[in-house]
Predict the structure.
Amino acid sequence: MKPPPFAYVRPANLDEAALELQSDDGATVLAGGQSLVPMLNLRIARPTTVVDISRIPGLQGIEMTPESVAIGALTTHSAIETYDWPTSLAALPVGTSHIGYPAIRHRGTLGGSLAHADPAAELPSLMVALDATIDLHSAGGTRTVAADQFFIGYYSTARNHDELLTAVNLPVSPGLRTGFAEFSRRTGDFAIALAATATWTEAGSPRARVVVGGLDVRPRRIGAVEEALVEGGDWREVCTPEVLAAFTEPSDDIHGSADYRLRLGAEMVRRAITQMEGDG
Amino acid sequence: MTTTQPRLVGARVARVEDPRFLKGEARYIANIVLAGMRHARFVRSPLAHARILSIDTSAVPEGVAVFTGDEWAEFGIECTSRYEGFQPAAMPILAVGKVRYVGEPVVMVIADDPYLAEDAAEAVMVDYDPLPALTTIDEALAGDAPLIHEHWETNLYVPRTYSSPDYDEQTKDMLSVSGRLSHSRHSGVPMEGRAVLAEFTAGRFKVHTATQIPHLVRTAVATAMGLAEREVQIVSPDVGGGFGVKAQAYPEEVACALAAKALRVPVKWIEDRREHFMASHHSREHTHQASLHFTEEGKIKGLAAELYVDMGAYSVFPWTATMDTGMAMGILPGPYRFTGYKVDGFPTCTNKTPYGAYRGVSRPAACFTIERLVDWMARDRGLDRLEARRMNLVRQEDYPWTNPGGLVYDGGSLDESIDVMKEWIGYDGLVESLRNDRKQGKLRGLGMAIFTEQSAHTTEEFKKRGVPIVFGYETATLRLDPTGHLTIAASIHSHGQGLETTLAQFAGETLGMPMDRVKVVFGDTDQVSYGAGTFASRSAVLAGGAARLAATELREKLTRIAAYLLEAAEADLVFSEDGIEVVGSPGSGISMAELCRITYQRPDLLPEGELPTLESTKTYDAAPGTGTYTNALHMGVVEIDEGTGGIDLQNYWVVEDCGVMINPLVVEGQIHGGVAQGIGTALLEEMIYDENGQLLTTTYMDYLLPTAEDVPFIGTRHLETPSPFTEGGIKGMGEGGAIAPAAVIAGAVEEALSDLGQVYVSRVPLTPEQVLNHIAEARSLQ
Amino acid sequence: MKTAADGTISVSVTVNGTNRSADVSPRTLLSDFLRDYLGLMGTNVGCEHGYCGACNVIVDGQTARSCLILTPSVEGSEITTVEGLASNGDLSPLQQAFQQAHGLQCGFCTPGFLMTATGLLESTRGALSDGEIRSAISGNICRCTGYVHIVDAIRSASEARSE
């Protein structure tokens, strides 16, 4: 279990990094390495070049204003977990604390986790629930993609090969509340099912996001529960495996059957919303 | 002799071996670097069952050495049972013509570093013609199943059957409960994988290997290569856990030796974790179809069982493929007093990784079966589960008790363990409070299991099991040097059990030696006498017994010499940390250093006829050879999360009796570790194969080991009933902790769900998904 | 500057207070760098995919899996390994606590636990609860001890420092 051979480069800035990616179709990005290096050791990932962006300045840190939060792509899970968040964003440190173990969270980064896009990982679902936007930088310029549009499949995102994920922006809308719940066999394992939820008001109208992870190839929003929350109906009635089945396509694996994931997903949604409402 | 000498036996002595591990100075094989050393990597079968059509090594980089099975076809490892009808098949060093499980070594490459070796292995192309994979016992035993070993008649290694003469009479017209009870396939998974470093120098092989059984590996390697055993030295330095996985001779050990000779360089192979899951032996997978027969009052009269064990593709050395069924057939009746017994064993060959020992060998499955059946009997009869056990236990006056499987229980404290447990945990109040919790909707329950742990079994037991090498005895050599320091060279090994400390305590005490003057040596066939090694909860009893006998002989000699030198009567001498003194005359004695110096360097001062040497070698086989019987009662409380099926194991208690304890701290460490592994058995661990025989659990992401958050605090209480058979009254206990947790947790889950409806938990690991299914089943029964 | 797959890159780090440099292949894992280039064999390699924690070391003040770090990426870092705990051959208070509590058996996971516990003790104050300890060590697997004595050892080290 040793990595296959690859070239290595440590660009000094974003533009250099973007050029490296542009010039090499087989190149991959190294940030904290907590997703990439296991895949290298298992020889599942076989890049021609590893572009180490971990030293590029300006990609780390959390900036909070009353209306929004900007988090640099190289911000570690530990930094997010231990930041002094307002209650409205309680789901963020709670969800982050579920990632792996302390030693993993010390090095793993927000950008790395999002670009890796494991469908059972915490941060992708959280970003969709929090209505985040994701900043991408390439030699051709920059663009911003909504998290809801960013995750497109199993380990697959809207990021083009030559783009670097640089930052995430979270709106802090009036009345924002957030919730998170996860179940895995052991502490630190990838979730069998997780749920991230948020409610807020936009121009006086209630909004809701209810996202499940582990039930599909990407985070999935559960529209029926979102509607119930927005309309003030009894959301518990639509928090069922049957309803989740209409919004997700879970599959069987050794950690749980599709049926179990649906049951568990509904339970996690219930718990995330209950937690969210309790925090209010 | 009256004695004032300090007691070492029974003291909670901190381990003397710890500093090197704590400082990062341990000598694991991975840490040994030899000049010119090169690195091996094995190309392993990606298919469960296939013919090898061709092997193309043309893309392997220059300078990399390559070996294939045909070159070494003559060097297999064979382990044939003495049971009549056993179908033998040697395990090849590298597959020859055919592969029989995913992970089987096919090609060996040797390069300058492990990275390059892995690159080279990827460059080897093997073309296979797939054959049907037999991945379950049912498939393997079906009438039309293809044969895994073509020269066999069926895929059964050898069926075994036994029936007590009174089975029919005892069970006639009795009530009964039955079930199909099973354990998943899993394994010991030590933190250090296997590791080999082989050299061929001066016409001799020196094979460093992370093994529990250095001499037996020497026998296997020498036999495979047709050598005299003196031509092979096996060195097993610090071993990072074994649990039975390393109590086996593996083809990689022979391969590294052969390659080292062919290339004339040291060859190192460090198993990686994926290889470990695929190619280090598996264990535990049992299915028992069993019935318990009893009277209306709940008195057990008989037990019938068919035992199916999936032994994988090859019989492993030195255990044979009948080890698990053989052991289960003996111990299945557990601690209960009945005579009617009928049992059949079916060790089956499948296209899975070969199956070997794991802490507890068969006893976790056997305990699970009998304890589940007793729980179900108690439910059927409306009895308290603990009282249902108590009324059926072997009684104190029955010892030595020959169980219906033929095992002789040497003694114990079964009844007393129940009394101690009840008082310690406040059993009656706990049962009541759990009942109240359930009334309020909390799914909490208590489970229990009581067992006798066959341990330190020797000649008689292994003779019965038909193994080719009967593991009877162990040998220890004690040597005092001229400065009065003691070396104990023992034929066992240690891979975490603390035997550097406990052997020093047990034998050192006899000579009044302080711990810092005793050094224990093992793990090198050039330095210690022939012996089996460390497994089956036997090392303290057998090597300890041998060392104690040798110490006694040295003590007698030292006494004679001291008496002569001090002009005192032998009966008036006492041994202490300072040496030997005359009773009642402080300062009158002679130091151990002086006594040893005189013995070696001033033979002119010795009594006539005393030889100037202080060495003794003793060999010990604890009669009657069917083992010592440690007993224990385990209890635990679980709470189930109804929304997820998650099981929270909240308390775990152990009352155990392993006879006289040498070091209670070490005893408790062994219990904790065993219980944690048993929790893995109960809740987490499973080697999962798909229908094509692909192993799906080859990382720690998929094969789940218990973490510090899965294992609760484990409380222990000790009873000490000395064994009447052994030196010092000690009993083996290393495996016991792992035996009961599956039965305890299954029973606790059943009780936790009991207000919803009565379910039967008959398979482990009990996953959260299965718990939810049980909850649905319980509700549907209402 | 790009290093070719078959080339080497110079890496300089401070390990246990001493500056160490070597030319390594880009793919060299930090665990292998410590062991094979620097001869620091105390860091054991248990799984090479980030789950067992046997290879934990401290990198720039935080515990990390050395098997999940490419050596060139820690250029200039400060690293502490198990060899850095004892001073002048004497066990540190934490190491002594492990010996007294029988917090190790086969010893293979022990350096990883010691480094995790060191990181925990450096980032907290006062006596730690069992819950805090168990959570902090949940990413380190021990197959021998059932964790009970490891928790005892870390708790007693945390109590000793707060006295």
